[in-house]
Amino acid sequence: MSETQRVTDAPLLSVRDLxxxxxxxxxxxxxxxxxxxxxxxxESVGLVGExxxxxSVTARSILGLVDEPGxxxxxxxxxxxxxxxxxxxxxxxxxxxxxxxxxxxxLNPVYTVGNQxxxxxxxxxxxxxxxxxxxxxxxxxxxxxxxxxxxxxEYPHELSGGMQQRAxxxxxxACDPDVLVCDEPTTALDVTxxxxxxxxxxxxxxxxxxxxxxxTHDMGVIEEATxxxxxxxxxxxxxxxxxxxxFENPKHPYTQALLKSIPGRTDPGQELPTIPGEVPTPTExxxxxxxxxxxxxxxxxxxxxxxxxxxxxxxxxxxxxACLLYPDDRPRQEAVELHQSKTEDDR
Length: 347
Description:
By secondary structure, the chain is of the alpha/beta class. The chain folds into 2 domains: about 15-95 and about 175-270 and about 280-345, Rossmann fold (3-Layer(aba) Sandwich); about 105-175. The protein is built from 13 helices and 12 strands. The mean pLDDT is about 90.
């Protein structure tokens, strides 16, 4: 989808200032802390970050699947103009579907693949009997499972890992979704099967008009499978851009570090760079830069001022980075003061 189309069309799914908090006896964990992004019909959007950055909680929030002690505390999840946080998910169950990362856990081992697809067809498309079986076979063929008429009667353990993941995608498609959330869909698969699953999802996007949200820690998957990307760290989106722009011109130090850690992007014989330390568990609302303790470019203000998203004006496409280094055409103190004023305006 072109930048012009995104300006003129309304988003299919719009997440605004989403905040999901887990209240425990010891502390409150701000797992998703002000996340915002849009997804348009027929496009693929990535949400990428290390483990513990809030990716999967964001996905579960979008689907209304946050379990106790977690709660969506604030923000909006707009689907076709309806605010799901206020109105509830019942009217849109199936419109947003999910593919989980481990198919062996996603599939029920005591039911055939066909039974599990037919259950989704019964709930979301009111199909039963022979019509449901025929549609289940068609869905298995759609996701590239050979001899689907026989496979529909098999149990999950009779399928390979790649076939199991295709079956999980078929179950998700049985919900007749407009948005497919792919939560680490290739992590449990070998490299060859990963490529096949990514190709399948791209084919579905183009042929069925599906919008895709890829949740992953793998920058290689992001580069291969998405149009736009949001980099998330400790519950906050720290950079947003088209995938091409992000890989060619990353601005946030965290994004730069993620890209440097991809195998094949360093010179031969050079040690693969890593990011020291771990993603923190955010137990308070953000008042500073959460990446500062690990950032090679951090300065004093980073531990005192919360960075706000700043437009990177040197690019023609939408590109934002939440870092006190920007805007980089201003003196550093002036840039810091701009972030302070934006934080105060948001309160």
